[in-house]
Amino acid sequence: MSGVNKVIIVGRLGADPELKNVGNGQNVARLSVATSENWLSKDGQKQERTEWHRVVVWGRQAENCAKHLSKGRQVYVEGRLQTRSWEDPQGNKRYSTEIVANTVQFLGGQTERASSTSNEEVSQDFGPEPQFDAADEIPF
Q1: Predicted confidence (pLDDT) per residue in 17-53, tens digit
Q2: Is the whole model's pTM more than 0.70, yes or no?
Q3: Would the CA dihedral through 124, 126, 128, 130 be positive or negative?
Q4: Burial class of residue 32, CB neighbours in 10 A (0-12, 13-18, 19+)
Q5: What count of other Cβ atoms lies within 10 Å of the Cβ of residue 52?
Q6: Who's near 134: CB < 8 A, 6+ residues apart?
Q7: Strand blocks (E) in the chain
């Protein structure tokens, strides 16, 4: 029996997609997607936790993401988890786990956030966005 490696997230982009050509006309886009969880603590205080996800999108779908998505846009992502490793310049072994997307669906409209009637949604802050290391090369 084989295993199952499937991830589904719905979240908002923390930055505009980064599109890169990796040779042979193959494009790859990197997305940084935030998902948030809200709950009330025992003392009735609103709590929130944000998770940041690195998403990699390939081919024509990557081009479409770069063309149509921008920071703050809500997306549905379906794919699989993949962990890769490399050595940094100091010789330390580094790891990165990312979602390799099969499907990216654009949710909401381009002006969804600007036309929202909820002040909370317009000013929603996901906290600090992790930066992709420019030295990270996708080894596929």
Answers
A1: 999 998 888 999 999 999 999 999 999 999 999 999 9
A2: yes
A3: negative
A4: buried
A5: 15
A6: none
A7: 7-13, 18-21, 27-40, 46-58, 74-87, 93-107
